Amino acid sequence: MNNNYLSLITNRLILRPFTLSDVDLLCLLAGDRRISDMCLNIPYPYSPENGVSWISEHKDAFIEKKAVIFAVCQKDNGDLLGAIGLELEKSDKRGEIGYWIGYPYQNKGYATEAVLAMLQYGFRTLSLNRITATTIAWNNVSARILDKTGFQKEGVLRNHVFKKGKFTDIVMWGILQDEFMDNVIN
Questions:
Q1: Please, are residues 94 and 129 in contact by the beta-carbon 8 Å criterion?
Q2: Does a structural domain hold residue 56?
């Protein structure tokens, strides 16, 4: 990974760096309660200050090889759909993927397409050995995406987070480079 920020292109998507001009739409999409309820790290309400602060951290995280975070955008019109990122532990050759797609754009395969692109980037470009993910126990949509993209369910952290007024479980997922190359790509 070098210091030049990059974009990834798929059949229908461009995964590109966020810019401060994305803040208003980011707040609209991430500020939907249905999104924050399914994600561990998205506050509700989601303010412009949250958006500016978050976007401002991305370039340094990339340069320091701590994370790669992209805006998920439609290829044909550039519309912002959501976000995807990899937090990196380079010394262990692993990363943790996180993603969300705005409610109006869900159930169209965008998250699956973005996750596959990020897995290819993580395993092929960054030479990671392992990529993990976590889902809130009730987030069945994200669980299906992870299952479709080759992740294995690895365990449950019981009563791990406080969400929607109660403690809830977190499901742990993982995929290894050889599993991805052997089963998902081929």
A1: yes
A2: yes
Position 71 in a domain: yes
Predicted structure pTM score? 0.95
Between CA 18 and CA 81 the distance in angstroms is 12
Contacts of 7 (CB under 8 A, 6+ apart): 14, 15, 16, 17, 70
Per DSSP, what are the bridge partners of residue 124? none
Is the per-residue pLDDT at 44 higher than 70? yes
**Cα 54 to Cα 74: distance, rounded to the nearest angstrom:** 21
> What is the structure's pLDDT at 4?
54
Cβ-based neighbour number of residue 65 at 10 Å: 14
Interstrand relation of 67-74 and 80-89 (parallel, antiparallel or unpaired): antiparallel
Predicted confidence band of residue 164 (pLDDT cuts 50, 70, 90): confident
